Amino acid sequence: QLIGRTLVWTWHPPLQYYLIGLSSRTLGESPWSARVPFALFGFLGIAALAGAAWTISKNAQFVLIVTTLAVFSVPLMLYLRQARYYGLLFFAGSLVAWGLAKLRRAEAGAITLLGVGTLIAVLSHTVAGIVLTLVSAVFALWEPERRGARALHLLAALAPTILFAIGWLWLSNPLHTLDRQLTQEPNVPTLWILLTNYHTAFFPPLAWV
Length: 209
What we know:
Order of helices and strands: HHHHHHHHHH
Low-confidence stretches: 1-5, 198-209
Structural class: mainly alpha
């Protein structure tokens, strides 16, 4: 699953696997060490969600309500405790929501939040990252007022994400597998199997993001 010996993972977006590897190397190999980084990203996501709520409302009570609903959401907590990309996507979605809120209010930090959020999403799950990037663009450019300035800011924020997504898709095994399937090579997963795998892996975290 590597390109040569460069340690570039090519079958799935790499961030969750590198986090598990780093955590296992640091804390030892155990289910607990595998889950730690994703739980931390989940808590950071709740903090980013609080920041988004504050930027939108400037109301402490609204922030408290939003964070309380997140903390006491049992399905969300069950997702965040898993050693998978769910915590990463939740954190990325919260950063994007915060960045969009700042962009709409012309506040500082919007480009950084949008750029980091969409990049983490693409590094965690390519399809979810692309969808989150497209949603960010639509929301950011929806209103005609100051649309030109917002478009320039959005392009600057999303440029690293777009470049990584294009590069990773070009090198990734799913794209090569599809190419081999279209050329009718034997013993290659069908396009339907690939789409089914993406479907079952993609929609649960997207719903919570």
